[in-house]
């Protein structure tokens, strides 16, 4: 069992800092535990206070490579609740070396009849901290009631089929930071250092950035798309 003062020290080390999400989908050339471990070591060397990593295998590799706080999760599937959807997923992530387990914090139906409170309890029973990934203020309140130790705006703009936002939901960050009794992490579409600074100014406990730092395929696609020449004008100039 991890002592309360160790949890406090871990959170103190993250406060006001950058957490980098080191993840790659299976079809990405960067996918693989060795590459994720090297990526994690690289971003920590660059000043990241912690890392967010997907899956037991990658978590174990990253844990062996860096000593920074590790937020682990297990994406199982691609629809509905797939971020650490059951207690067994959460336990596996803790056993792989994670300090904090990120869990879908919405009220949606979960596989195997699990509840958010059950997943959080499984994390706590093994000495870990539970972070709820949410999309709305109501979901954040639900997650805190279920025992979540931290809340992250990871899912804001992603769970609503009608949502089309391209910018981070910093208004939600500010709202949650002012109203919740637990730390609030700003996460989701944070693309620039200015976005990160604004999130902290609005009360975010820490800022988590993924694609803008660790997805060169997506970064290259954005630049390449911007360089596509416009159509030639018709007629003589």
Task: Report on this structure.
This protein has 237 residues and is α/β, with parallel strands linked by helices. It is built from ten helices and eight strands. It has helices at 4-14, 33-45, 56-65, 87-95, 116-125, 137-145, 170-179, 193-201, 211-214, 216-226, and strands at 18-22, 50-54, 70-73, 100-104, 129-133, 150-152, 184-187, 206-209. An eight-stranded parallel β-barrel has the order 1-2-3-4-5-6-7-8, surrounded by seven helices. The N and C termini lie far apart (75 Å).
Q: Describe the largest sheet.
A: 8 strands, parallel, barrel
Number of helices: 10
Secondary structure category: alpha/beta
Low-confidence stretches: none
Name of the CATH homologous superfamily: Aldolase class I
The rounded Rg comes to 18 Å
Per CATH, the architecture is Alpha-Beta Barrel
What spatial order of strands do you see in the largest sheet?
1-2-3-4-5-6-7-8
Total count of strands: 8
**Overall pLDDT:** 94
What share of the residues lie within helices? 40-55%
Name the shape in a single word: globular
Task: Say what the CATH topology is.
Answer: TIM Barrel
CA-CA gap between termini: 75 Å
